[in-house]
Fold this sequence. Notes:
This protein has helices at residues 2-14, 181-196; strands at residues 17-25, 36-43, 54-61, 66-74, 77-79, 84-88, 93-101, 105-113, 123-129, 146-149, 158-160, 172-176. It has 197 residues and is mostly beta strands. The protein is globular and about 45 Å long.
Amino acid sequence: MKKLVLLAALAVSQASAALLTIQMNTAALAGFATPLTLDFQFIDGELIGNNNNMVTISDFNLGGGILVGSPTLFGGASGDLNTVVTFQDSVPVSGFQQAFIPGSSLWFRILLTDNPEPTFPDSFTFAILDSTLTPISTTSFFDVFVQIDIPALVPGNSQSFGDPTTGIPGPVITAIPEPSTWMLAAPLALLVFRRRR
């Protein structure tokens, strides 16, 4: 019976994460001097580094573009875009920067845990820096192309911004449905039913 309770707890914890895809048309970046820089930041909302949320970037695709050199990481960031990049809010701000030459598109997955802060949300942002490491202008106050606050699946917490002056559209953010709790709990219910019989 203890194993069944553990399975139920795992099923609930599995359902408390958000999986998103980010897709961006980067053809308009061809007019910029290169290399450009991808800039990802994960900010602890309470600015204390309470280690309660994590973000993972995977399946990164530059649509014919190439990564240049080695990434720069700080805070609770680790990994690289050829495999997986992980951000932990063990410090107030974690960051990852990678120089690149753009292709026609940009695509990646983000997996976020879903533990809200009591006052200010943890926040994940994605920006592109020009060759002078200045953020490319967007309609966001912070010149980011993507801002996702935790919990990510609350309407309005996942936002994208474009740059109307250069014709760079905002990225498309799509939630990928996780297996729902009933799908994860169905095998558990079957085990309980068979055990009783």
